[in-house]
Amino acid sequence: MAFRRIGAAASTALVVALAPIGTGVAVAQDPVPPVSAGSQTVDEDPEFLELHIDKVTPNTVTTTSDPFVTVSGSVKNIGDRTVSDVSVRLQRAPAVASSDALRTSLTLDQSRFDTVGMFDTVAESLDEGQSKQFTLSLPLRSDTDPALDITEPGVYPMLVNVNGTPEYGGAARLDDARFLLPVFGVPGTPAIPPDISSPVAVTMLWPLADRPRLAAGVPGSVTDPVRLVDDELATSLADGGRLHELLASAEFATGEAVDRDHALRDSMCLAVDPDLLITVENMTRDYLVVDDPSDPTGPAHAGTGREAAADWLERARSLAASMCTTSVPFAQADLSAISAVGNTELTAAALEAPADIVDNILGVTSLRNFVWSDAGVLDDDTAQLLRRDQPTTTLLAANAIDTDAPRDSAHVIEASPAQSPLPGNGETTPAATGTSAPTGSLDALLFDPAVGAALAATGTTPQTPSYTPARARFDLTDDSQAARLQDALGAVSWSALEPAVARSAGTPRSLMVVPPQLWTAGEDDAETILSTVSSMIRTGLATPRPLPALLGRQPGSPELSSLDYPDQATEDGVPAHHRDAVADQIPRIETLDTALIDDPQATLTPERFTAPLREDLLRSMSLAHRRDEKHDSASEASDLRTEQVADTMNDLFGAVTVVSPGGVYTLASEQSPLLLVARNDLPVGITVQLQVAAPSGMTITDIGPTPLPPRGSRTLTVPTEANDSRKLVVTFSLTTADGQQLGEPTSVTVRSNAYGQALAILTACAGTLLLFLAGRRLWHRFRGQPDPADEGYERS
């Protein structure tokens, strides 16, 4: 229903220092009129009718449009009784005067929409479950008839109100629906064009991303086909699918036939998820889809998206080659979670490897030293993490910067070489974080949070970004997809239609169009938004501003400012228990990676073998679907992914072990070597260390690091000295060089032919007796006397 509740207030956390910006975006400056008590409590009343907007014509008013606005939709009886005298009318509120009001105006009480048309009857009565279509039309302006009274360009909040009389009740307003109407120019006589004296500089990110699809816990292989948890991506890449339409819309809008001067193309930058590219590239070969996502190595069937993947990837390469291209963090990973884990290799896989992946697969040179976190905000630790040897720019919502932070704040430090502020929304400013100055710097490129929120609300699965303030949060399911698209069009065009805002701030205007990375906009949404931006450029309301031009360093010294990290971002992000689970597995992967043998002759390298496991941990920290209606399933999928990685690591460590010889092992002598067999079931060779727990009476020499061949075994000759003839139990196990247990320990029962000290005494006594008898015989012979021992044996 359109009667919305405003979300609870969210506290802000001052955690890091950034250099401030001067922005043409008026964020939260105008007071928001309070929502009436009626709107706050109506949700508790019985619901009778549901109003749904299907289409608004024109979706953007220009001087050449028809001089009236037409809204078509439907009214459905969702109550438990008949409603009679169902009628609708169109109403308008004053033009949006601040950026903040682009969202808050959609929550105002209907009384604030004080320019009204006449009621139009939809149905004499609607029974339970029955629905009825309607079409409303109202002139933009008229001297004689009811009209919207729009006499100048701007963005206008609109409301469709439905009244009815429920059975056993009186006439009442039973539902409404709101949307924004951008007016570029007022048609009629005379036509009123927009002010194009100070066009807005527009930069647009065009994301190509998806939720993680590769099955977890499957190490790298040379010949085995990849496994996916489902085959939905095949549908998304095919004609009519989400990713197909996002790509097709950009292709069409920037094509030579439409964008002849390349103005729209110059304003755009493809933002590609490397995880999506890895998945699609693997789909161009034979791939499998598991029958049960909880059993990634279990039964699977062949995937169906090979042709669609190949076609989409080829078209993506062609489009990327013609325009700015950048990467987003791997699998849209939560950068706050990455910084909390604090692992260097994991951080590199999330932030540094994506650019190389995009370059290798798409065959381009993507934009470097640019980081776009899908959260749109940064905390202190993450900002510190992003500061590198070279100046780095991050993309943030304008309200993620606390420009009122004092210069002497504990979080403000000396900035590295400063950058002069760029004008308005989309401004770049240096950032300083932490308590000591690192070698690099972090700049903030800002976008209007109201514009970002409106874009995030479009599509089949709308979401509310973490940076959206509490006063602008409401249930997006109250609005139809058509209405949410109108809101996005209004938000995108507002700054171009309000030059007075920028002039009062004394700076030129700029606009960053930043949808969410996982954007569910369909064909109509994507094409309409691109068409609107293109129209702004063609009519002189906007000029293209390439993203790479914003990343260069320029002289200047703006003030420092700190980061404002909302509690909502923590709530929307990866929970602490999941970060801990990731942190537990990272050292195990590194240990295994170090123990594996890098054979130049082998196709499967240790890095290629373990990389999917590290990437799985990044996928488990994805922000995909964590802010929409699928957040529960996204969280469950993340937990399952880390569990599967842990299970796989257990299996990999268990695949290297000592084979028990069985029975009793008998040594031929007290210093005979002990022969053991070590087996490696991994497809990559590994270096192991034999660990021995031997009882007293037995000494076993350390044989040192021992390499084992891939999927093979090796006999270990263990020098052994046994000083006891008893049966002795010796425990053997294999570990990595740093002591990580491999496989299960094996106990061997050993028996030696040695007699120990008793054998030594007997031998000594026998030797003494032998010497005595030999000596006596020689003595008698020397004296010519027969030896008494020879009596009876004299020669005859």
Automatic annotation (TrEMBL):
Keywords (A to Z) from UniProt: Membrane, Signal, Transmembrane, Transmembrane helix
Signal peptide coordinates: 1-28
Transmembrane segments: 754-774
Compositionally skewed regions (Low complexity) per UniProt: 428-437
Record InterPro entries: DUF6049
Stretch list, region Disordered: 415-437
Keyword Signal: yes
Keyword Transmembrane helix in annotation: yes
Entry protein name: Glycoprotein
Species name: Rhodococcus oxybenzonivorans
